[in-house]
Specification:
Number of helices: 3
Number of domains: 2
CATH architecture of the largest domain: Irregular
Largest sheet: 3 strands, antiparallel
Order of helices and strands: HHEEEEEH
CATH superfamily of the largest domain: IHF-like DNA-binding proteins
Radius of gyration: 19 Å
Shape: extended
CATH topology of the largest domain: HU Protein, Chain A
Strand content: 25-35%
Structural class: alpha+beta
Distance between the termini: 22 Å
Oligomer: single chain
Number of strands: 5
């Protein structure tokens, strides 16, 4: 599913919203998540999982093409840990929750 597909799905489920409104909502959610992670905050979405920022320390790596040793700088990387509910639902071992309004 792409971002565009997600916007279309919001628009399908909430037809009173314009396509532009659905796009603004999705962008606001994603922007809020990015801002929180930039501040180093953990994001937990019950039933889905959690997003955290992991800190990778500086290290020496190897160029796979030449075999040359290279210095890899320290960095922060986003990490998603799937929640138990999602893992079970994807595996078909837990019943899907009824969707509201249907």
């Amino acid at each position: 599913m792409t971002k565009r597909d997600l916007i279309d799905e919001v628009n399908r489920r909430f037809p009173h919203l314009s396509h532009r409104d659905a796009e603004v909502i999705i962008n606001a959610i994603f922007d809020s998540m990015v801002d929180a992670m930039r501040r180093g905050e953990r994001i937990e979405i019950r039933g889905l999982g959690s997003f955290v920022v992991k800190h990778r320390r500086a290290r020496e790596g190897r160029n796979p093409k030449s075999g040359e040793v290279v210095s890899v700088a320290a960095k922060k990387v986003p990490f998603f840990k799937v929640g138990k509910d999602l893992r079970l639902r994807v595996d078909g071992k837990a019943p899907l929750l009824e969707e509201e309004g249907e």
